[in-house]
Design brief:
The chain has about 220 residues and is α/β, with parallel strands linked by helices. The chain is about 50% helix and about 10% strand.
């Protein structure tokens, strides 16, 4: 099952504040699961939500895959600063539109490795980004941004389910975060994919598929 995060997919165009809370995301995951334990796979922001759901509902998660994800910012001062930055970005989206946002988003160092992708793949991915709704993205930044959610670093030692932490070797920031997470998680393995940056599933889909499928089957998750 695929979950559309608030403001994305079938929720695109929605800017209702009540939908842009983690509690709303948590309720939707629970509804899709139908009361049964599930395997959760999340990328980046989706990985942060998957980790939060597992930390809050450990009996409802069998296995957890976190691709280029973080437990959040530890200090309240960091979260407050991030909320200020996200508010400024939300206003930029609202005033300048989706095109200006996509230009700024793709210029981040985090996505430098994607410039090595074939031109057709980059164009397809850019076209998908441009389909996003400005109101929805602004609401997502305000309600579900990194600064809006609590830190889950302190929850890692008590999370005893099997966890695959998947990172791109070229993504130094999240490779370091992933290594630290694995040190704190009781039952976790780290897979670093050579030649990939932040979006491992996009840049090295073969390695991503091998690692994730192998892990969910209980096999060695190395690519």
């Amino acid at each position: 099952m695929l979950l559309d995060l608030p403001g994305h997919g079938r929720h695109a165009g929605d800017a209702a504040p009540w939908r842009f809370t983690f509690e709303a995301v948590e309720a939707e995951i629970g509804a899709l699961a139908g009361g049964e334990p599930v395997d959760l796979v999340g990328y980046s922001m989706g990985g942060r939500f998957a980790l939060a759901y597992a930390a809050r509902n450990p009996e409802q998660v069998r296995r957890l895959v976190l691709e280029s994800a973080s437990p959040g910012l530890e200090a309240e001062e960091e979260r407050a600063e991030r909320r200020t930055l996200d508010e400024a970005l939300a206003r930029l989206i609202e005033t300048e539109g989706i095109g200006a946002f996509v230009e700024r988003w793709e210029a981040q160092e985090l996505f430098d490795s994607q410039r090595a992708l074939p031109a057709e793949a980059r164009a397809t991915h850019r076209a998908r980004r441009l389909l996003n709704n400005p109101r929805s993205l602004a609401a997502s930044l305000r309600g579900l941004g990194t600064g809006a959610l609590p830190s889950y670093w302190g929850s890692l030692p008590g999370l005893r389910i099997p966890v695959l932490v998947l990172v791109g070797a070229l993504d130094r920031k999240f490779a370091a975060i992933g290594a630290r997470m694995v040190e704190l998680l009781p039952d976790a393995r780290l897979v670093s994919v050579a030649g990939a940056g932040h979006a491992v599933h996009l840049e090295r889909p073969d390695a991503w598929l091998g690692a994730v499928v192998g892990f969910l089957r209980g096999e060695d998750g190395s690519p």
